[in-house]
Design a protein that fits this description.
By secondary structure, this protein is of the alpha/beta class. It folds into three domains: about 260 residues, 3-Layer(aba) Sandwich (Rossmann fold), CATH 3.40.50; about 160 residues, Rossmann fold; about 100 residues, ANL, C-terminal domain (GMP Synthetase, Chain A, domain 3, 2-Layer Sandwich), CATH 3.30.300.30. It is built from 16 helices and 27 strands. Strands 2-1-11-10-12-13-14-15-16 form a nine-stranded mixed beta sheet.
Amino acid sequence: MNNQKEKFLWEHYYTKEELIVNIPNKSLYNYMMDLTKDFANLPALNYFGKKINYSVFWNYIDKCARSLKYLGIKEKDVVTICMPNTPEAVITFFAINKIGAIVNMIHPLSAEEEIKEYLIKTKSKLIIVLNQFYNKVKNIIKETSVKKVIIASPSDFMPIILNTAYNITKGRKQEKPQNNNLYIFWKDFMKLSNYYEGDIEAKVSKDDVAVILHSGGTTGIPKSIELANKSIIGVNEQAKVFFPEAEVGDSLLLVIPIFHCLGLVVGMFIPICRGATCILVPEFNAKRFDKLLFKYQPNFLLGVPTLFEALLQNEHLKDADLSYLKCLVCGGDSLSSKRNEIINNFLKDHNSKGKIIQGYGMTETTGPVTFGTHGSNKLGSVGIPLPGNIVRIIDPKTKKEVKPNEVGEICIHSFVVMNGYLNDKRSTEKVLEDYVDGRKYIHTGDLGYMDEDGVIYYVQRIKRIIISSGYNVYPEYIEKVLKDNKYIKDACVVGVPHPYKKEVAKAFIILNDGLEETYTIKKEIMDYAEKNLAHYMLPREYIFKKEFPKTKMAKTDYRALTDELLKK
């Protein structure tokens, strides 16, 4: 039985009113519309300097929804968005939700086979993809249930001068399919709205699945995570507490891609719902970071540690005035106490009153579960549980809660927790377990501790995940793919430090008996990996060995292999 009177260590940071979170029974679309009805003349999106006001944004969503209905998309159907941060991606996201369908977000740099697998697994009926990734889609699309492919261009929403320049330089180099029964261009797709006159808005419950995101899950094997409307709405309700500095008319520079949970929820959904301008950056270049800041002067920055390293290292920002920055949020990976302090000093020296704030969360929890808010931003910590979230530190062996300052597994109960893994009841039940308090908690697979004030500190992963530029890279998955290659007998992937990406993957390879390392074999293995792995998963180096060191349990000793690299 739930103990409603139970007091938690972190509650003293909040007022009684702040601890109450009410989630309306609405779709993401309806929720957004209700909150933004007074912002018609304010810019919702900014794309390469072209501003799209809320009234125009609403109209685009309506047209997109009608076009989707014209193509036969029904409630509960799955529509895939395989796009970087562009207006088409944001518009389509809300349009899909408006008609009661489900959004499936795919990383556009995913390998062909990954894209095919995600489309088949989700039974997607339609996909929108950027023209530069058309080649990947054309090779696999007929093996899926997709009935229509919408082709968008980065130039569709660019200002006229940039649009012309793009099409002269990059655009003309892109292979273009012909409009036919399978392919249609974005602008032609939007015109279909003129031919649909029926109802487009569906009745959606807050408990209905709104989005499917793909991640490694807590097991390290790729999972498809179902997030309900209530989970994403819930994070925005919590944002009233963890973004108190946010005001109508503010802006956020969206560098983290929206196929990433943090980018989708905190970077896109929350700013739009709060009357802020979402500055869309489809491709981030660290060397040009200064130009983005000078041009847009955003009030909020959301990024992985790599982004903030770029802030420190950009020589053009040495004497820059950054007084417009109110808050910097670091997610996707932890930032060391030392780097956190250095960045805060950098901001202070550049006239910003903002500080970098860290939080903790995962895709299965719709992003942030804890946040360094209300003075809880102790150096090295990830803050306190947000209102409505309960965090317990559990001994992985005894399943009992440990005392303050003792390390255990971080376990979470909240309305932000996923509905489950798509078509994987067994894995869902494995990570979502009932606790003695009668609540269901997700076991994160991460180790941490809570101090006597209720502040959470992240320690390390239980499983060996590599974090590269903020992306989770799962060695077991890469090994599985590599072992399917005809030349490879065994593979072991480890993460090693990198000055910019933080970590990169390197692969140890044992060839099949009788084979020797040659240029041809190595080249074919690398080509195979590029076809079957997302770009950010690709090993930086391939090292050939005759045998691997073993543990006492006769398993490959990946720690020994890691040490071997570090000693070089």
